[in-house]
């Protein structure tokens, strides 16, 4: 609850920049897909349940037309303080709990990723799951 006499704390600068970027329109209905700035992402998680599983890694690359821009990529390993649940997930992505323990803080990874994707459309395989986690 916020009392009327309490001042609202402004959001962090990086959040304000993200809000500004999201309000900018970078396309029109006549824009061809080949002309859109696209980021293809892939996330690895501890499992398939967004209610209990966690993000372990996040990777992305910029695609322009039919060209994958390998020099414009994002790759981060997320520290999982809860340990890695389920051996099945590790068999899929190959990331061990010991590796995940050396990763970055999840919130920091997400903010760096949001800066990376500014002005781009998102694409990916099973992207609903990746974004849900």
Would you give the CATH topology? Nucleotidyltransferase, domain 5
Tally the beta strands. Answer: 4
Classified by CATH, the class is: Alpha Beta
Order of helices and strands: HEEEHHHEH
Give the low-pLDDT segments.
none
Lateral arrangement of strands in the main beta sheet: 3-2-1-4
Give a nutshell description of this structure.
The chain is α+β, with helices and mostly antiparallel strands. The protein is 29% helix and 24% strand.
Please describe what this structure looks like.
By secondary structure, this protein is an alpha+beta fold. It has one domain: Ribonuclease H-like superfamily/Ribonuclease H (Nucleotidyltransferase, domain 5, 2-Layer Sandwich), CATH 3.30.420.10. It has helices at residues 13-23, 87-93, 97-100, 106-116, 127-132; strands at 38-45, 55-64, 67-77, 121-123. A four-stranded mixed sheet has the order 3-2-1-4. Strand 2 and strand 3 form a beta hairpin.
Key traits:
Nucleotidyltransferase, domain 5, 4-stranded mixed β-sheet, 5 helices, alpha+beta, 133 residues, single chain
Topology, element by element:
Blueprint: H1 13-23, E1 38-45, E2 55-64, E3 67-77, H2 87-93, H3 97-100, H4 106-116, E4 121-123, H5 127-132
Parallel strand pairs: 1-4
Antiparallel strand pairs: 1-2, 2-3
């Amino acid at each position: 609850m916020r009392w009327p006499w309490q001042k609202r704390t402004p959001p962090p600068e990086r959040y304000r920049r993200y809000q500004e970027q999201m309000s900018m329109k970078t396309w029109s209905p006549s824009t061809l897909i080949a002309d859109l700035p696209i980021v293809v992402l892939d996330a690895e998680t501890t499992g398939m349940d967004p209610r209990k599983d966690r993000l372990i890694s996040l990777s992305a690359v910029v695609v322009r037309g039919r060209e994958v821009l390998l020099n414009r990529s994002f790759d981060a390993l997320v520290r999982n303080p809860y340990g890695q649940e389920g051996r099945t997930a590790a068999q899929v992505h190959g990331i061990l709990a010991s590796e995940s323990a050396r990763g970055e803080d999840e919130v920091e990874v997400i903010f760096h990723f949001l800066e990376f994707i500014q002005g781009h459309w998102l694409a990916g395989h099973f992207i609903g799951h990746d974004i849900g986690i």
